Amino acid sequence: MTRAALIAHVLLCVVLARMPTFGQEQPHRVVSLVPATTEMLFAMGAGDRLVGLGSYDRFPPQVAAIPRVGGLLNPNTERIIALRPDLVILYETQEELKRQLERADIPYYRYEHQALPDITSTIRALGERIGAPQRAHDVAVGIERDIEAVRRSVAGLDRPSTLLVFTREPGSLRSITASGGYGFLADLMDVAGASNVFGEIQQQSVQASAEMILARRPDVIIELQYGAGAVGRSDGLEAWKTLASVPAVRTGRVHVLTGDQFVVPGPRIVLAAQQLARAIHPQ
Amino acid sequence: MRSIHARLALTTSAFGALLLGALLVAPLVGSTSISLARVFDRSLPFEDNVDAQIFFIARLPRVVAGALVGGALAAAGVVFQALLRNPLAAPGTLGVSAGAALGAMVAITFGLDISLAGLPSIPLASFAGSLGALGIVYALAAARRRGQSTTVLLLAGVTMTAFFSALIMFTQYMADFTDTFRTVRWLMGTLEVGGYAPLVAVAPMLLLALVLVSSLPRSLDLISVGADSAAARGVDVVRTERVALLSASLATGAAVSISGPIGFIGIVVPHLVRLLVGSDHRLVLPASVLFGAAFLIMSDSLARTLFAPVEIPVGVVTALTGGPFFLWLLLRRI
Questions:
Q1: How many folded domains does chain B comprise?
Q2: Between chain A and chain B, how many beta carbons pairs sit less than 8 Å apart?
C-alpha cells in the first residue's frame, strides 16, 4: 500500500466514524438500553422494530413482551449479540459495551442527555438514524408545542419558589436530593411556572440539608415518586411537619407526584410538565 | 512523672475543653447566618422563628450526632487496636460496619417500610444488620479458647467484611437504577440524622458500651502487650475480651446505623491521641472519646460550610484534614 493510499484510508475511516449513518441500511432489529429512547421509538411508530430492551424500561405497556438485555451497569453483551440487532441504542458512558459491539460489527447509537431541548433534538436525530425523519419531526414538534402551551398557561402568574425533591429516606428528612438549576427537571420547573429554590446551583441534583431548606423557605415542595415500587408507597408527608417555619409546610403546599414520566426524559415529558404546572398553580 | 490521677485530670480537661469548644462553636456556623439573639427570642412562636428552627432542627441534632458517633467510633478503635494487638484495627474490622451497611442496603433496595420508636426503616434495618454481625462476632469470641491467637479473630473479621461486602454489591447490582444512587449516598456517611429520635434511640446503647469499656483500661494495657503475660498478672483474659468485643461492636453498630460508615475516626484518632498522651489506656480511652467527638463535630462544620450552599460528605473532610496532620505527627516522632 502506498503512503498516499494509507492516508486516504485513514481519512476515510475517520470520516466514516464521524458519520455513523453513512452507508448503513435502515435498522429493523433495534435494541434500546435507554428507557427514554424506547419511549421515543414507540412515539414515532417504530416500536415494532425493538427486539431487546434495558431492564428499566416500563413504558409503554407493549414493552412487557420484549426480551430484556440488562441496563446501564450490567448490559448482557451475549444476549444483545444473540438478538442479531442492526442497531443498539446505548448510553454514551457504556465504553466496554461499545468496544464489544465494534468487535461484533454491530452499529450503535450513543444516547446522551442533558437538558429539556435535548429531548426533541434526540427524537429528531433518532428519527434520522432509523429512517423515519418525518414522523420523528412530527413527534418533536408536538412536544415542543405542548410544552409551549404549558408555559403560556402559567404566563403572568406568580412564580412560587419551589423545592423539587428527587429522593429522601422514607419517614425522615435524611438524605434529601433535590433538583439543582440544571437538567430537564429544572427546565420543566421553569416551564411549569416555578422559581427553583436551588436555581443558582448549576448541578442536576443537590444534597439538601434541613438548614438549606429552612433558610430558602420554599412556597411549594414537590416530591417525586418513581421506579418499580413507586405506586402505593406509604411514607407520607408527616416528616415535613418538623420544618414548621417553611411556608410550603405551613400552607399545606407539599405535594407528591408519582410516575416515571418525571425521570424518563422522553415524550411523556409533556405529561410531567402539565402535572407540575397543576401542582404549582392549582388555580 | 506525675501521678496518673493528675495526668488523667490534665488530659480530660484539655480534651474536654476542645470538645466543649466544638460543641459551642459548631451550632453557630453553617451555610446561613443566624442571629443568636433571635434563636432564643421567646416572644416569637417557634413555628415562625426561622433562626430558632435552623438552630434546633437543622444544626443541633447534627452536632450531637457528631459527638455521639465520633466518640463511639474512637472508643471502639482504641478497644479493637488493643484487643487485636494490631495498629490497623478499626471499628469495622470485625465486620460490624459491613453488617450495618448490608442492613441499610436491603432496606433501601427492597423499600422496607417499617418504623419503631420514631426511627425510620433505614437506621432500624442497619442496626439489625449490625446486630447480626455482632452475633457472629460473639459466637466467635465465645468459641475462642485462651491462648488462641488473635489472628483467628482478625481473619474471621476480614472474611465477614468480605462476605457482607459481596452481599452489598449483589444488592446494589439488583437494585432499581434510582435506588442505587441512594445506596451509594448512604455508604458515604452523613451526620444529617433528621431529628432527635435516632439520637435518643442510640444514646443508651452508646452509654452502656462506654460504661462497660471504662472498666477495662488496666486490663487492656496488659492484654495489648500479650494475653499470657496479662493472665499471669491476674487479668481474666477471656472475660475481658468478650466484654470488650461486645461493647465496642455495639458502639460501632449503633453509630454506623445512624450516620453510615464514616472513615478515619476509628483508626486514626486513637493513634493520634497515643502520640499526644502516651500509651496508658486509662488516658488514651477518655482522651480518644473526647477527641473523636470534637474532631467529627469540627469536620462536619467544615463539610457544611466549605462549599456552601453545597455540602460535601463528612468522611471526605475527616480524611483530608486528619490525614496530613497525622502524618506530620508521625514524622515529628521519628
A1: 1
A2: 108
Mutate to test the interface with B, among A212, A235, A242 (most CBs of B within 10 A): A212
Of A124, A125, A128, A120, give the one whose Cα is nearest residue A145: A120
Per-position DSSP letters for A74-108, written without gaps between them? ---HHHHHHT--SEEEEETT-HHHHHHHHHTT--E
Judged by CB atoms closer than 8 Å, whether chains meet at A206 and B310 is answered as yes
Q: Looking at CA atoms only, how far is residue A275 from chain B in angstroms? A: 21
Residue B182 within a domain = yes
ipTM: 0.80
Instruction: List pLDDT tens digits, range B187-241.
Output: 888 998 888 888 998 999 999 999 998 888 888 888 888 878 888 888 888 888 8
In a domain, B43, yes or no: no
Nine cell digits for residue B239: 472475660
The answer to whether the Cβ–Cβ distance between A215 and B194 falls below 8 Å is no
Lay out the sheet containing A108-111: strands in order across.
A50-53, A30-32, A87-91, A108-111
**What is the structure's pLDDT at A24?**
55
Contact status, residue A177 vs residue B185, Cβ threshold 8 Å: yes
Domain that holds residue B301: 4-28+50-333
A211:B304 CB<8 A: yes
Instruction: From residue B330, give the alpha-carbon distance in Å to each of B272, B274, B296, B313.
Output: 9, 11, 21, 26
Grid coordinates in use for B99? 453488617
Q: Each residue of A176-225: pLDDT tens digit?
A: 999 999 999 999 999 999 999 999 999 898 989 999 999 999 999 999 98
Residue B299 located in a structural domain: yes
Q: Which residue of A has its CA nearest to B308?
A: A212
Would you say residue B44 lies in a domain?
A: no
Judge: B48–A234 Cβ closer than 8 Å, yes or no: no
Q: CB neighbours (10 Å) of residue A98? A: 16
Of A56, A175, A203, the CB nearest to B182: A175
Whether residues B178 and A227 touch (CB distance < 8 A) is answered with yes
pLDDT class of A3 with cuts at 50, 70, 90: low
Q: For residue range B280-329, what is the model confidence (pLDDT) as tens digits?
A: 999 999 999 999 999 999 999 999 999 887 888 998 999 898 888 888 87
Could you identify the residue written with the cell 442479531?
A84
Here the CATH number for the domain that contains residue B194 is 1.10.3470.10
Domains, chain A, with CATH or none: 26-149 (3.40.50.1980), 154-280 (3.40.50.1980)
The larger pLDDT score, comparing residue A237 to residue A145, is at A145
List A91's β-bridge partners, or say none.
Answer: A111
Strand (E) or helix (H) holding B321: helix B314-333
User: pLDDT tens digits, residue range B46-62?
Assistant: 888 889 999 999 999 99
Whole-number percent of chain B with pLDDT over 70: 96
